[in-house]
Amino acid sequence: MKTEKVNYVLEALSKERLDALTKDALVKAFNDDGIFDLEGIAENMLKRIKNDSEIQQTEPRLIDFAPLGKRTSKDLARSITHAAPEVPFVLDGIAYEPEDIRRFDGQALVFIPTVAADGSTYLQLFDEKIGEVIASYFQMRQITSLLNPADFLPPWFPPQTPPGTPPGTYTPPNYPGLYGCGGITGIPCGKPTPTPTPTPTPTPPPFTLDQIQMFDSGDYTGNWFWLAKGYMWKDLTRVSRGGFFGGDWNDKIFSLSSTNTSCIYCEHINLEGSKFFLGPNKPIRNLAALGWHNRISSVWNFDS
Are 205 and 257 in contact (CB under 8 A)? Predict the structure, then answer.
């Protein structure tokens, strides 16, 4: 179809595929779509600007809990193909190796990353029917957030005092010949004391409060967009990515900067398909490790 060729051009103009685009390919794609002059290009641009403006007026929307309890249609579920994560997973109390995820193709699942007692990460999986329970859970959280415990305390209730500062540890002075050169250190005098090589630390996620940031590259890099708490994007094909020719955000999220809210990421538009549940303050620098890179088509950011 003509639109498929134009979509290829828009995709190629994004930064990660810019080298794959040629002038002839660009001209041919516009010609195939019936655009032969500057007036046609200007009209095409104007339509995109108006469309983006409409999107900003209609999206994102306030959270609606009803879709979370609905099951994915059978026809859509049959098309689900799970990407193998890099960590094991547990489903119905049974532990599986990462590659076993393909045994559940055609079935919508709920994914929850979990940290074990030994510090390792694994995925806890549930059948999609658990969505009704999750919807009830978040509704209860929303109700309890409206109740401030301080409203029920008498005005004379004394405030809590912070605990005292624990005693510090003793650091001996660096006397020459004792803790400097020679002495018990064994370091020859006249040479500098060796310093340990610092261990490189990974890039921290951007600080966010009440909103999530999503990126189209790993380690919180590349293009990004945000979503405030209490809102959802039902269709990421309607969210522009990188200007006129950047394409959209459908199946483009590669890393997530978490926040103090709980979020759900859905495999398909309209909040359907498998779902990835992420609790507060759990940034993910590489969704490929969990089998969810370039797989998200709709997003929920629940209130804290």
Answer: yes
Q: Is residue 226 left, alpha or beta, with left meaning phi > 0 and alpha meaning psi from -120 to 50?
A: beta
Assess whether 28 and 124 both reside in one domain. no
How many Å apart are CA 239 and CA 29, to the nearest integer?
22
Cis upstream peptide for 60 (omega within 30°): yes
Write the pLDDT tens digit of every residue in 226-237: 999 889 999 999
Using alpha carbons, select from 72, 80, 74 the residue that is nearest to residue 104: 80
Which of 45, 61, 77 is the C-terminal boundary of a domain?
A: 61
Q: What SS3 class is residue 175?
A: coil
Domain that holds residue 287: 62-145+204-301
C-alpha 30/C-alpha 9 separation (Å) is 9
Which pLDDT tens digit goes with each residue over 229-280?
Answer: 889 999 999 888 876 667 899 999 999 988 888 899 999 998 899 999 998 9
> Do 45 and 135 sit in the same domain of this protein?
no
Q: Where is 227: in which H helix or E strand?
A: strand 221-228
Short-list 214, 240, 237, CA closest to 225: 214
Structural domain contains residue 192: no
Q: How far apart are CA 100 and CA 123, in angstroms?
A: 12
Tell me which of 38, 61, 84 is where a domain ends.
61
